[in-house]
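INFO  loader      accepted 1 record
INFO  loader      residues=125
INFO  predictor   begin
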Amino acid sequence: QLQLVESGGGLVQPGGSLRLSCAASGQTLGYHWIGWFRQAPGKEREGISCMRTSDGSAYYTESVKGRFSMSRDNAKNAVYVQMNSLKPEDTGVYYCAAVPSFGACLTTASRYLYWGQGTQVTVSS
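INFO  predictor   done
INFO  writer      dumping tokens
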């Protein structure tokens, strides 16, 4: 079984930065998709980015493209998302998710099997 734990959330001002971590245990993340999702109050869960761990290639949705960047640390079996130029509309609970797969990754929540517990990100002045 694969377990995921997110960390790094908090309160930041608009324009600030935050880095979220997704630490995996139980299995290595080789040949997985890793997705980042968020859910704002009163809104549906939104996929924002994903990575194919076999080669580190990543995809970003329009809402975060150019501001967010995923990375990986194979030695730590962890994945990160660096979030820059944060906006109030970025506020929400952020989740990482994983599924064994290959090919180009997708930010479709139903495709993912393993989920973390979420970490709160609040962007406010």
